[in-house]
Amino acid sequence: MKRILIVMLALCSSVLVQAQEKPVPYGQKMAFGFQVGQYQEDFGIGLNVTSPYFLYNSVAIRVRGNMMWHQHVLNTESTWSTYSNLSIGVIGVGGNIGNFMRVYGEGGALLLLPSNDFSSKRTEIGGYGLFGFEFFMDPHFNYFIEIGGAGTGATADRIPTSPIYSNGLIIQTGFRIQL
C-alpha cells in the first residue's frame, strides 16, 4: 500500500511540474472520475483514474475499480451479493470535435474478485473493450458515456445452473475531473 501511495504521489508531482512548464490542451491532463454502469446484468458503481495523454495527446492509461452487485437465489430467496472488478486499459483517441467532445476506444485486462456466496473461485481474469464519448462542460470537467463488451468466462458455480456473470455487454456513464 505504501508503494502505491509513493507512486501516486510521484506521478501527481510530475504532472504538476509539467503543467507549470507549458499549457496542456483541453482534456489532456490526469483525471479522476466516478462511474455508474452495468456489466451484463450486474449493476455497479466505481472510480477511475486516467493518466495524462501522451503520443501526440492521443493515448492514455486508465485504471478502474467497481463495486458490483450480482442478483441470484440464495436459500430459496432472491438476494444481491457484492463483488469487485478491477481493470487497466489503454485509451486511443479517435477524434475531437472542437474543445467540447472526444471519441475514444479503450481495451485492456479485467480482474474479478467474486463473492463466496455465488462462486468458489477467488479471482477471474478476462478482457474488455469499449468505445466512448466525452462531453466537456469546461476545461476541468467532463461527462462520459461508454458501451462495449467483457469476456471473462466467469460462472456462478455455487448457484444451480452455474449462470455466467460479468460477460457480455458493458454500459457505463459518469464524470471526470481534470487536474
Descriptive report:
- With 179 residues, the protein is mainly beta.
- Helices cover 11% and strands 59% of the residues.
- The protein has one helix spanning 2-21, and strands at 31-39, 42-50, 59-74, 77-97, 101-113, 124-138, 141-151, 168-178.
- Strands 1-2-3-4-5-6-7-8 form an eight-stranded antiparallel β-barrel.
- Residues 12-24 have low confidence and may be disordered.
Mind sketching the topology for me?
Elements: H1 2-21, E1 31-39, E2 42-50, E3 59-74, E4 77-97, E5 101-113, E6 124-138, E7 141-151, E8 168-178
Antiparallel strand pairs: 1-2, 1-8, 2-3, 3-4, 4-5, 5-6, 6-7, 7-8
> Stretches where pLDDT falls below 50 for ≥5 residues?
12-24
Helix-strand makeup class: mainly beta
| Overall pLDDT score | 87
Strand count, sense and closure of the main sheet?
8 strands, antiparallel, barrel
> What form results from the Cα inertia axes?
elongated
Task: Trace the largest sheet across and list its strands.
Answer: 1-2-3-4-5-6-7-8
Strand content: over 45%
Rg measurement, Å: 18 Å
Instruction: List the helices and strands in order.
Output: HEEEEEEEE
The number of helices is 1
How far the N terminus sits from the C terminus, by CA atoms, comes to: 23 Å
Helix content: 10-25%
How many β strands by DSSP? 8
Concise summary:
By secondary structure, the chain is mainly β.
List keywords for this structure.
179 residues; mainly beta; 1 helix; 8 strands; elongated
